[in-house]
Amino acid sequence: QVQLVESGGGLVQPGDSLRLSCVASGFHSSSSAMTWFRQSPGKERRLVATKTSGGRSVYADAVEGRFTISRDNEKNTVYLQMNNIKTEDTANYYCSAAGGDLGGDAYWGQGTQVTVSS
Questions:
Q1: Residue-wise pLDDT tens digits, 34-66
Q2: Is the distance from CB of 111 to CB of 93 less than 8 angstroms?
Q3: Rounded to the nearest 5 degrees, what angle is found at the Cα of 78, between the Cα atoms of 10 and 110?
Q4: Residue 57: its pLDDT value, please?
Q5: Residues near 30 by Cβ (< 8 Å), separated by ≥ 6?
Q6: For 17, which DSSP code?
Q7: Which of 118, 114, 5 is nearest to 67 (CA)?
């Protein structure tokens, strides 16, 4: 069964760093595009960062220069390194996978909450 499990969220202060993890199972994520999305109450889910199977990284303007997406294919895991966190980064962060072994389907994790407060 395809499964994505996020972890690493928590309560942090502005300027802190945090690393989120997304562990994939049931497929080989190395052949898929892996994406981090985030959603706050009352707002649409928005793309944060994407890592393609070819190694290309794409970032939303709001996080470029602060966040880094990476993947460890042997561990079937994708990470989101969050540096210089801002209050506007507060959201539920979701991991998504598409393409490769998954074909045209897209799969989502249940999310991990990041709350930034001073």
A1: 999 999 999 999 999 999 999 999 999 999 999
A2: yes
A3: 55
A4: 98
A5: 53, 71, 73, 76, 100
A6: -
A7: 114
Measured CA to CA, the distance from residue 26 to residue 2 in angstroms comes to 4
Q: Tokens standing for 110?
A: 């249940």
* Residue of 47, 52, 21 lying closest to 36 (CA atoms): 47
Banded pLDDT at 94 (limits 50, 70, 90): very high
Q: Is the pLDDT of residue 104 over 90?
A: no
Residue type for position 55: G
**pLDDT at residue 101 is higher than 90:** no
CA distance 72 to 62: 25
32 in Cβ contact with 78 (< 8 Å): no
